[in-house]
């Protein structure tokens, strides 16, 4: 067993974990933060994306022990302090960028990381950045629109609607 | 101005807030006191005889609580097929037992033959590996190829089924001679052999189940990833474990997509219940993604020869098909209906075809079970028809728009009886085709083709005019066709004493937004705010009954039941109002949330009536029960028939064979639309999956029955940069004539109409580029296949 200490959504946490415990499992089972989802075993689907020290990371690809000392942010930490939806989250609701909701936490975390790096991405840049997040419901149309809107661009015009 | 609430408004989805905040509750998100973990031991060979399973070492491993093998379930029932189909000669289909755990033989890679339950997931996993090492399974030759399966009776998936054939179905057998005669005398016959590629549904949430047994009460609870919890309860209770139905609750909480794959009952659900009974503790299981690839019911997998008889100017005279349909190793619940009544009955398409005959041979193989996947049979029918219409146009040098227009059923011909057993109630196929031509800017195609050419690309456009039968389904009709269940639905509308409302529906939402759109409908009808209506679904202990969500049935069937229940509420409200207002019941009108005496200003609000029903101080108690709650069951009079026209433009790189979707345009007729935003989202998703089938996705078994595409490393899921923005339209409306909302359903349309549009566009691009020797390319139209076709 290994002791890990990290900050998750602004709160210090500490636990003994097996060496093979993945960060995704630690968040879900250790901390009860079940908003981070696991959709595959090969780091392909992106449902488990969280921010580790500000970078988008697939939490099923990282051992909990490797996040020792890190600042971790999950979907549960994305809402505004008053509980309302943040700009990215609100854009997903406004533009129907989610259906079943399972890939959504990863989509939101990846989109937020993209916008932090690139505040006005083009459609092509959004599609390329989100390649590592699979959605089976939306056909991506409204996800790309939501990210355009969250960046302050005229999503409807860019989507040629 | 678009409406901002009620029917027809793009109300934002209320379920989004919890999903966007990480507060959804999916099955695997639930933690339970005393929970234990099940892990399954799965066959790594496609076909084998189980010689021995030595549990002694695994059972002594840390944390192991119980081990189960097929021996433990040999005396309980099998998981049945939902439809009994007869062969052409009248003999019933062969229905081999589908056990909870394989017994005697394993029949596909991933077939579970044992399970371990332990204190932790890792302990269960370690012990399952030990058990796999201690199992002696004699590998037998795998049966993978359907043509070989039916030709070679020496090698059998099920020992008692000599030719690996489930049934040999003809539709409609009595029409066969007339169809053959039409071909004999036809001026032109087009022939096409094609494969409808096998797909894995790939809901993003893997299947997951938790079994809970309470030894103090004898009650069971199954929490599971299901599209239809009542059907799962019925199958577990009545067919598999023999638990009294009233002692079993099935809950399907937030479910992360289904696309058909979560309609069915799977053995893992029975296992966690049985294990929980043995241990007296909750038992949970969640699939890893590779388990999902190996064991979720797959879709499609047809090999078809289709022939079309026509005049030289493109009038369709007859259609004849022969299909081999793979059902895999066992019959999944809808597997026998999908290639038959959801496929053969659609083989006239939207066209005036006098003669149609369909033959389907359904074949057992050592592969995962195959069942309904988004569209279910109708994409296969549509692909066959729309590809051969295009091929006929090329052979006769005819315009594909004009040939379709000539053959489409005319608006004044409805109701239209097809030669394959359906009566289309209404439609206007010309209108959607005209709309499509306008939206897709077909008249300027040549300019776009020239621009593509300047970049070294070949541009093509592909058309598809499609129809589907959904809103499944009239019970008396499906009973005649072999269904073991009715396909009505139910709803309860409970008006609470304070005037707000809980609606219990038999539909299940796993992405469709029912909590929002059903509330819009009820709120509109009762003249109250949407926020006063709560939708309850997915729990057999709360909902009267229901057959769940699939086959684009939620609105057309479950929505109709809800509407009927609301009508009963209004009718009772009028009686209460008549008493309170001292008027005759016949003089009471209900509008905008108010019960009024016609021609006066005397009125009671909906809230006042609700309060009076629960605090009946001034109430006709001698003739009317207190309370305000109504239940309705609704059985549809017919299928519904959404239809539309799709156009895809592609750019093909002739150097690499890579196909890019340049644009995709949809003009659909879904009848009345309740929430345009949600409807458009459904079409986007369906088209995304259709493009996936057409260009990317394939499920590949090698000759030994090993699944080569068992992870996202190998199975090409559509990603954000594989697809464009889509143009979708649903402004052409012919309301359904037989349900109260006039709705037809939209969930499957995109996946049905799009694959042939994509493939037709690729063939068109190649022909425009001079590669006229290319007659067909099977899906997925991968760069390798396109390059080989160009250079072949």
From TrEMBL, chain A:
SUPFAM superfamilies: 2Fe-2S ferredoxin-like (SSF54292), CO dehydrogenase ISP C-domain like (SSF47741). Residues 2-78 form the 2Fe-2S ferredoxin-type domain. GO terms for molecular function: 2 iron, 2 sulfur cluster binding; metal ion binding; oxidoreductase activity. Keywords: 2Fe-2S, Iron, Iron-sulfur, Metal-binding, Oxidoreductase. InterPro entries: 2Fe-2S-bd, 2Fe-2S-bd_dom_sf, 2Fe-2S_ferredoxin-like_sf, 2Fe-2S_ferredoxin-type, Beta-grasp_dom_sf, Diverse_Oxidoreductases. PROSITE patterns: 2FE2S_FER_2 (PS51085). It holds the Pfam family Fer2_2. It comes from the Bacteria. PANTHER family: OXIDOREDUCTASE WITH IRON-SULFUR SUBUNIT. This is (2Fe-2S)-binding protein.
From TrEMBL, chain B:
Pfam families: Ald_Xan_dh_C, MoCoBD_1, MoCoBD_2. Residues 21-141 form the Aldehyde oxidase/xanthine dehydrogenase a/b hammerhead domain. It comes from the Bacteria. One of its GO terms (molecular function) is oxidoreductase activity. Keywords: Molybdenum, Oxidoreductase. Coiled coil: none annotated. InterPro entries: Ald_Oxase/Xan_DH_a/b, Ald_Oxase/Xan_DH_a/b_sf, Ald_Oxase/xanthine_DH-like, AldOxase/xan_DH_MoCoBD1, AldOxase/xan_DH_MoCoBD2, AldOxase/xan_DH_Mopterin-bd_sf. This is Xanthine dehydrogenase family protein molybdopterin-binding subunit. It comes from Paragemmobacter kunshanensis.
């Amino acid at each position: 067993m290994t002791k890990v200490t990290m900050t998750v959504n602004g709160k210090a946490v500490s636990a003994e974990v097996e060496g093979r415990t993945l960060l995704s499992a630690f968040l879900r089972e250790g901390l009860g933060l079940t908003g981070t989802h696991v959709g595959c075993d090969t780091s392909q689907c992106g449902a488990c994306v969280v921010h580790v020290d500000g970078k988008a990371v697939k939490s099923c690809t990282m051992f909990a022990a490797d996040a020792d000392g890190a600042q971790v942010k999950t979907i549960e930490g994305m809402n505004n302090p008053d509980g309302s939806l943040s700009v990215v989250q609100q854009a997903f609701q406004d533009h129907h960028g989610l259906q079943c909701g399972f890939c959504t936490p990863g989509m939101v975390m990846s989109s937020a990381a993209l916008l932090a790096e690139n505040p006005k991405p083009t459609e092509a840049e959004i599609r390329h950045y989100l390649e590592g997040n699979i959605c089976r419901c939306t056909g991506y149309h409204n996800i790309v629109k939501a990210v355009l809107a969250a960046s302050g661009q005229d999503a409807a015009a860019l989507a040629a609607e | 101005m678009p409406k901002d609430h009620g029917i027809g408004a793009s109300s934002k989805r209320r379920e989004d807030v919890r999903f966007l905040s990480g507060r959804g509750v999916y099955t695997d998100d639930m933690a339970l006191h005393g929970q234990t973990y099940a892990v399954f031991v799965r066959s790594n060979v496609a076909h084998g005889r189980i010689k021995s399973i030595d549990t002694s070492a695994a059972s002594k491993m840390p944390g192991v609580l119980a081990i189960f093998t097929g021996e433990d379930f040999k005396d309980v029932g099998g998981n049945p097929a939902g439809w009994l189909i007869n062969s052409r000669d009248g003999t019933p289909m062969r229905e081999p037992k589908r056990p909870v755990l394989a017994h005697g033989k394993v029949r596909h890679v991933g077939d579970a033959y044992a399970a371990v339950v332990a204190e932790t997931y890792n302990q269960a996993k370690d012990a399952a590996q030990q058990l796999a090492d201690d199992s002696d399974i004699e590998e037998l030759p795998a049966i993978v190829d359907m043509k070989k399966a039916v030709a070679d009776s020496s090698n059998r998936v099920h020992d008692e089924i000599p030719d690996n054939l489930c049934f040999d179905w003809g539709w409609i057998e009595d029409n066969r001679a007339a169809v053959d005669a039409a071909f004999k005398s036809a001026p032109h016959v087009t022939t096409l052999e094609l494969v409808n590629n096998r797909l894995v549904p790939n809901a993003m949430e893997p299947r997951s189940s938790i079994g809970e047994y309470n030894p103090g009460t004898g009650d069971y609870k199954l929490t599971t990833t299901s599209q239809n919890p009542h059907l799962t309860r019925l199958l577990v209770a009545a067919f598999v474990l023999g638990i009294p139905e009233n002692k079993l609750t099935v809950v399907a909480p937030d479910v992360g997509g289904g696309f058909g794959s979560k309609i069915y009952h799977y053995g893992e659900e029975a296992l966690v219940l049985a294990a929980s009974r043995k241990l007296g503790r909750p038992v949970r299981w969640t699939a890893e993604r590779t388990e999902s690839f190996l064991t979720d019911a797959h879709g499609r997998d047809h090999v078809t020869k289709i022939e079309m008889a026509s005049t030289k100017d493109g009038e369709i005279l007859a259609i004849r098909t022969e299909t081999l349909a793979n059902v895999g190793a066992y019959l999944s619940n809808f597997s026998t209906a999908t290639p038959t009544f959801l496929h053969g009955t659609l083989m006239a398409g939207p066209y005036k075809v006098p003669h149609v005959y369909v033959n389907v041979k359904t074949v057992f193989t050592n592969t995962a079970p195959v069942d309904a996947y988004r569209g279910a049979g109708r994409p296969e029918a549509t692909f066959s028809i729309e590809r051969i219409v295009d091929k006929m146009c090329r052979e006769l040098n005819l315009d594909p728009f004009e040939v379709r227009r000539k053959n489409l059923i005319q608006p004044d011909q409805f109701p239209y009886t097809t030669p394959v057993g359906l009566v289309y109630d209404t439609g206007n196929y010309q209108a959607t085709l005209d709309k499509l031509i306008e939206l897709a800017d077909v008249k300027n195609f040549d300019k776009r083709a020239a621009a593509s050419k300047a970049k070294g690309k070949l541009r093509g456009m592909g058309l598809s005019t499609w129809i589907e039968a959904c809103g499944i389904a009239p019970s008396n009709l499906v009973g005649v066709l072999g269904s073991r269940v009715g396909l009505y639905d139910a709803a309860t509308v409970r008006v609470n004493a304070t005037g707000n409302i809980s609606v219990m529906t038999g539909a299940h939402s796993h992405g469709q937004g029912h909590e929002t759109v059903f509330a819009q409908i009820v709120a509109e009808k009762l003249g109250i705010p949407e926020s006063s209506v709560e939708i309850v679904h997915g729990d057999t202990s709360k909902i009267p009954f229901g057959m769940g969500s699939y086959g684009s049935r939620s609105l057309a069937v479950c929505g109709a039941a809800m509407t009927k229940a609301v009508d009963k509420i209004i009718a009772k409200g009028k009686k209460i109002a008549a008493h309170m207002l001292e008027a005759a019941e016949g003089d009471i009108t209900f509008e905008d949330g108010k019960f009024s005496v016609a021609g006066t200003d005397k009125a009671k609000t909906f809230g006042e009536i609700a309060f009076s029903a629960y605090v009946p101080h001034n109430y006709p108690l001698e003739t009317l029960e207190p309370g305000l709650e109504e239940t309705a069951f609704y059985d549809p009079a017919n299928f519904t028939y959404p239809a539309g026209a799709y156009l895809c433009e592609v750019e093909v790189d002739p150097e690499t064979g890579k196909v890019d979707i340049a644009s995709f345009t949809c003009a659909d007729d879904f009848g009345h639309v309740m929430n345009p935003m949600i409807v458009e989202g459904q079409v986007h998703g369906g088209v995304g999956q259709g493009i996936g089938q057409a260009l990317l996705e394939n499920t590949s078994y090698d000759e030994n029955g090993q699944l080569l595409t068992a992870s996202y490393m190998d199975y090409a899921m559509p990603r954000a940069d594989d697809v464009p923005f889509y143009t979708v339209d649903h402004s052409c409306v012919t309301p359904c004539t037989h349900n109260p909302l006039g709705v037809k359903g939209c969930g499957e349309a995109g996946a049905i109409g799009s694959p042939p549009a994509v493939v037709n566009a690729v063939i068109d691009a190649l022909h425009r580029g001079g590669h006229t020797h290319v007659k067909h390319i099977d899906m997925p139209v991968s760069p390798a296949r396109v390059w080989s076709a160009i250079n072949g």
